[in-house]
Amino acid sequence: MAKTNISPVGPLANTASVVSAPTTSSQPAANPKSQDEMLTKQEMAARFKVSVRTIENWLNDGFLPRIRITTRVIRFYWPEVVAHLLKNSSGPGPKVPPDGPKA
Q: Which letter does DSSP use for residue 30 in this model?
């Protein structure tokens, strides 16, 4: 009796042949906790535990340093963001402008 190959049909048809090959790159795998990484607005929002809209507001207010790749694509370099926040932080309470509070 001859054997017949039965192949799956539908969405599972090619799953048996999908195997992840090891990378041959000398580049280490991306670490989500790496300090030297470019972040999207969504990733920044997750790090600060705020909404994406809050990140957009902070951008409009000049609160965050950014790298504009195209008119619609913005990335954040995490070490630069941290350095900027530490440099411009006034500690607890509202930040008072150098010329004093506005009346």
A: P
pLDDT in tens, 27-55: 445 555 555 689 999 999 999 999 999 99
Average pLDDT, the chain: 74
CB 60 within 8 A of CB 66: no
The CATH class given to the 35-88 domain equals mainly alpha
d(C-alpha 103, C-alpha 100), whole Å? 9
Give the contacts of 50 (CB within 8 A, at least 6 positions apart).
none
Helices first, then strands: H and E counts in the chain: 3, 3
pLDDT tens digits, residue range 83-101? 998 888 766 655 556 565 5
C-beta neighbour count of 76 within 10 angstroms = 21
CA separation for the pair 48, 65 (Å, rounded): 15
